[in-house]
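Exercise (ungraded).
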Amino acid sequence: MIRLEPRASVPPLVAAAVPVGAGVAALALAAVPLMLAGVDVGRAFALMAGGALGSTFAVTETLTRATPLVFTGLAAAVAFRARLWNIGGEGQLYAGALAAVAVGAGAVTLPPLLMVPLVVVAGMLAGALLMVVPTIMRTRFGVDEVVTTLLSNFVVVLFVSMMLDGPLKDPMGGGWPQSAPILAEAELPRLVAQTRLHAGLVMALAAALLVYGLDRFTVWGFEARAVGLNPAAARFAGLRVNATFLRVGALSGALAGLAGVSEVIGLKGYLTTDLSPGFGYTGIVVAMLAMLNPLGVVASAVFLAAVFVGADSMGRALGVSTYIASLIVALSLVSMLVGQMFLTWRVRLGRGAAAAGGRP
Amino acid sequence: MSLPVLDIDRVTKRFGALLANDAVSLSLDRGEVLALLGENGAGKTTLMSILFGHYVADEGEVRVAGPDGRMAPLPPGSPKAAIAAGIGMVHQHFALADSLSAFDNIVLGTEPLWRPWRAPRPERQRLEGLMADSGLAVDLAVPAGRLTVGERQRVEILKALYRDARILVLDEPTAVLTPQEADGLFATLDKLTARGLSVIFISHKLGEVLAVADRVAVLRQGRKVFEAANDGLDRGTLAEAMVGRPLAPPQRPAVRRGPPVLVLDGVGVPGRQGRAGLEAAELTVHAGEVVGIAGVSGNGQEALAAVISGLAAPTAGRVLVDGAPLAPRPAAAVAAGIGRIPEDRHRDGVVGDMSVEENLVLEDLFGPGTQRRGLLRFGAIRRRALKAIADYDVRCPGPAAKVRALSGGNMQKLLLARALEPEPTLVVAAQPSRGLDIGATQAVHARLLAACARGAAVLLISEDLDELMALSDRLYVIFHGRLAEAGSPDALDVRRIGLMMAGQPAEAA
Amino acid sequence: MIEALDVLLTTAFWIAAIRIATPLIYGVIGELVCERAGVLNLGIEGIMTAGAMAGWMTVYFGGSLWAGVAVAALTGGGFGLIHALITVVLGRSQHVTGIGITLLATSGSYFTYRMVLPDVSSPPRIEPFPPLGWDWLQKIPFLGPVIAGQTALTVLAFVLAVLVAWVLWRTPAGLAVRAVGDNPAAADAQGIDPIRVRIAAVVAGSAIMAVGGAFLTMSAFNAFFFEMIAGRGWIAIALVVFGSWMPGKAVLGAILFGAFDAFQVRLQQSVGGAIPHQVFLMLPYLLSIAALVVMSRRASVPKALMVAYVKGQR
């Protein structure tokens, strides 16, 4: 007889095993559609592993792909910790990228030491402002931020498209809807020669450490956690709940905006409407796999980036649609949701009557 | 001539390591009123929940008499089966869907789900007959959320009667009623038992039990420790059975009244969600005294607590603390030296998923004892928590344990520690002993009295008249948002207060 | 501009408006069933995508149109079941699970489509539902031609809306659903299993939503495009709030929305190049956000929406 007992605390081993188990389960489940498509599953996974981690170049590709995911993962983690459901990472990313290009493609010219921070700050502000509006709508009017952030994603992408067709269009771009390239002074340096890996990764790691530090060691992190876990009790105790939500929303939006900035000034050099293949949404999965832990976000971002890069390479070799990567990502999230059960409940095998309701 | 209708046979229930019911056996005869007494956590509600199918017993059996009188085992774990066997339950926290009408709430579950139509007319006729027979009247068309507490209870009872309940279980039915409404309820029960209904009612109110029950059973720590016919029983015997040792009444130290600390001057606060607010409230609490606020729940106690705690702003009048107006922010209340114990400790008091030490510093997060330049001072926080745990006897695995693992009594002690540690000049306690066992209740009372002896002003808002009479130096009664001064408890009797609680002036006795 | 307003009086305009409203009607009714039982189904965008793909593909491989509709409904119900198992049985966050279902259904649909059909320059087409064109309808002034210009799936949408309203308010099953969405403990105490009711509601609602997606590939258009749902699922969620969880008001909201969208297309054509076309495309989403803000203040939310029910908890 299987019985479920609530856990008083989570042993660290279990806490680490659940996300890993979810990742493994996702890969295993993905084998099913692969088999149905007549693909040699073993070969497919081998190619994926090789494509993601099999050479120095592959590793740099994976890390390059992981960079924006760390930012959007942090954005989601920061917000979700406070039970602020920011699903607008995609839009905030584009807002950040747009601001970077608006400022950094010739509007101002400064030495690199000033240019890069300027562009970064502009991107963070854009992302933050974009998230602040749905947050205020929640605190003032009780409007669910999930739907407003989701809908605003569409609005932002259309706005970017409009800008790229109009004021921000590259006069020398041959008529394509893309922005003028950012100035060399605003570009991020490469970390490894002959690869695409850029300093955005360093920024992402720094952001992860900063968020971790804020959450663990400062009053503001404490406040955000309390407000997220029980807003009524936090309010009773004198914490400023609405101001906290605003702070959390702004930080979350800023981090997602940074993802956009990093892709523009580190990788692409200019802005198009297909800058992000869903980094914002993938960031949510990154955050959930990491159990909303900022340091864990780095690990899960690398894992999911490896899945994407590996699937690219495997797809080309075997003729498998690269959507298998998105499928694995989605399966990871679902597995994680199911696996979370093991964090709150302990499974016990033993005799005794069927458990109908286990809590007094 | 006794006909058994219910036989609970050595029922045992465990929740993990906690033994909630330990081989409890009870029987009930037709037309009998059995009172089930015990402290909070003694296992009364668990036992009744097993009876009604919310839980399944680990050992033991329940047998119920069918309409023909023969006993048959009750299929466990299903409210549907319990209802079919003739058991009806009036839950302590009424199980009503607020947006549905009283009528819909009563007939919910009585029509087969596959039927693509409803037949309200015969149902309504039957209900109206029932209401006439039992004397329980309710407007069937009103959404349950808009009924008064007394009406909601009547709907709960009608639900059971409509389902042909032969055994009615009432869980703390008078917790939310005035003394007069409670009398009305017992009169109804009398009528129903005369026609053969059998009643089990759970209570912790000794006076009530002695007045109404035919037989009394006492549970303590999951075991039945006492059972007798209500023939010559007295409160003392029952109280001792409940607690296991003789009880000493709380010692109220001599009053040394100081200057006024809290003054409410014509304060008006709007009510929320259909509950009363405050209207032209006048109140004064002096240093060194305990002022009690008596009243049935929903008459403005929430608004009163909220406006003094800084959670609500008065739309009329002023709230003065030590002569200065109170800003309507919780942080301002804390800064003004007000120690607050919230009515709902789970919702407003503690953050369950945070640790004991984190909860203790929640009201002082930005103070120098908790942080320096934004960084948390873990050592200071830990030391403070250890001291509070020791001083207030908070039983927990340690300062880092999550608060949700604590029992209700220990959570309340934690909240007391948080509120009283900074030595506030005013203490506001709303329903501080609700849901606590006698031991924890005594601890709470002792702390409040100690604060008072130290010179604090204590405002005690409670629905428990015994508690108020025992602790207060002066009493007010709140009704429909208005406060009326009732004087010293020594000069009052429960009946008079009951009338005031029901809105009748003190003169008309 | 006046000429643009004149268009409101033409049957052609209203034929378009109702056609645009149809997937929203399915979405709104399906989501309403889930939310009335207390479950927020954020999987709607993905479920509509899966319904669109599954229905279309059934017809592409030789099935009849109605077989396609049935497959779409089954697919939707299947994803709804996964959602219900995670949120209702396991009690996990409805927000995150919904997003997970959307990601799963969408990526599953795209992957299946790409693997089954090679990457051709123009997407393959099917023979969609034809317009009703019933002659007897033409005799009814104005409404007649508008209905005749619709397809069977639009008629089905309205029929379902009426059916759902009937079930919710005139049958015991509907009462059970509304009770569970208000106070599952109350329903449990009356012998109704909230878990089962919620699962059933979510599966049924998801099946309905999926047909809304199939409408796009089998009636409004005749091929499956990536990103074709374009946020209609999220708009439907906003419209449920806008309609205060009442089927009549929600359908009305969907029709108003369809009219607005049809109007903005006409406006774009007449205003021409002065305003960038993206502005017009943005309007539906902005309107939905506005509708949410306006209605959220007075919302009569099902009280147990998003509150997981654990048996035996007091």
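Further reading is listed at the end of the chapter. For now, observe: Residues 26-232 of chain C form one domain. Chain C has a mean pLDDT of 90.
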